[in-house]
Structure prediction request, 252 residues.
Amino acid sequence: MKEVKISVKDLSLFYSEKQALKNISLDINSNRVTAFIGPSGCGKSTFLRVLNRMNDLIDNVSVSGEVIVDGINIYEKNIDVVNLRKRIGMVFQKSNLFPKTIYENLVFGVKLNGIKDKKVLDEIAERTLHQAALWDEVKDRMSDHALSLSGGQQQRLCIARALAVEPEIILMDEPASALDPISTAKIEELLHDLKTKYTIVIVTHNMQQAARVSDQTAFFYLGELIEYDKTTRIFTNPSKKQTEDYVTGRFG
Prediction:
């Protein structure tokens, strides 16, 4: 039985007068990887940020419709947005590490939540590095500057940092787009392992990546959700011609 983790109903988003997302409805299941694909500027990253209210940080954005996470509409007036973003973590396209040590990056969010016990912090750091398949590479370098790591290691450290506050959902905005093929493969392997514990939503412009890592795929175009289905179906037998043209490279 698949359990719906996020249910989006009739969602629209405007930047001032310009409509960026148009009446989107979809359900995202627990413990699955859901990929958003589509050409640049089609609204997929904007829609990803809808799911943890990151667009609130942009001036003149208005949202209508509902985003229901575990039965609660996250756009209700009384929602604690800080708490919401603990539950729904985010990993960005470029690793956005703090100019601190590897260890300090890992425990930063946990300390903000009031945990100060060194033993607990050490356990969290080790657990999340194991989860991000980074422990063996950095266990003897915890006091090194985080920016001394390679690009792929930095991105996995960002994932470990997101996991440290124990989110339920992880949003990833093109997490491997700046990485070499070996680092990309490590991130993709990681997604397979992480979905046993987390619900993962990934934006990618790499269709092969979407086909490899995701269970469900949503195709966006010009702010509209054109098609949403099992990934195998989207890539082998889509129901809309627009989707077929896009995934076969005949688009535009």
Remarks:
- The chain has a mean pLDDT of 94.
- The chain has ten helices and ten strands.
- The first helix runs from residue 44 to 50.
